[in-house]
Design brief:
The protein is α/β, with parallel strands linked by helices and 168 residues long. The chain has one domain. The chain has a six-stranded mixed β-sheet, with helices on one face. α1 packs across α3. The longest helix has 32 residues. The two termini are 21 Å apart.
């Protein structure tokens, strides 16, 4: 039984590494092909999401993840809010709630502001960024399609389910 579990863990690890390599390739390809005006630094007052911030965000699990094309459409309770830029870079628009001490509690809702109004219109780099965020927000528990709430974004349940399959 433990040999089978080890084999499954190895297969999952290799699949994750493959997805990461494809994602890095797509991300770098999209950012190289992006127009020069998009590759400029972040807007004043908007922080780029660094690996350290992603690591800090990954310590909590989120119950709901809102997908929206406009930050104004998001409920006030959604935090953190991260925007995906047209070139696939991540920007932190609203910081996460302060973690309670001593152990982190699950967040009620996080949000992702997408650069497109349709999930199907996302570029490869944008999809990789979205998958990175969803894996961070899911913690160790994973996400179900009904936990992704679309606000002003066309994302059918089958599309959301297909997207989430990349996380497993």
């Amino acid at each position: 039984m433990s040999v089978r579990r080890t084999s499954l863990q190895l297969a999952a690890g290799l699949a994750g590494a493959g997805i990461l390599l494809v994602g890095v390739h797509l991300w770098t390809t999209d950012s190289v092909a992006a127009p020069r005006h998009i590759r400029r630094g972040p807007a004043p007052g908007v922080a780029l999401v660094s690996p350290a911030i992603l690591d800090a965000l990954s310590r909590n699990q989120t119950w709901l993840v809102y997908l929206s094309a406009r930050a104004e459409d998001l409920p006030a309770l959604a935090a953190p809010v991260v925007a995906i830029a047209a070139d696939g870079r991540l920007r932190l628009l609203r910081p996460p709630p302060r973690p309670p001490e001593p152990a982190p509690e699950p967040w009620l809702a996080a949000a992702v502001v997408l650069p497109e109004r349709r999930l199907a219109d996302l570029s490869g780099g944008q999809r990789v960024a979205l998958l990175d965020l969803l894996s961070v927000f899911s913690g160790t528990g994973g996400l179900r399609p009904e936990q992704l709430v679309a606000l002003g974004v066309e994302a059918s349940r089958p599309e959301r389910a297909a997207l989430l399959k990349w996380l497993r």
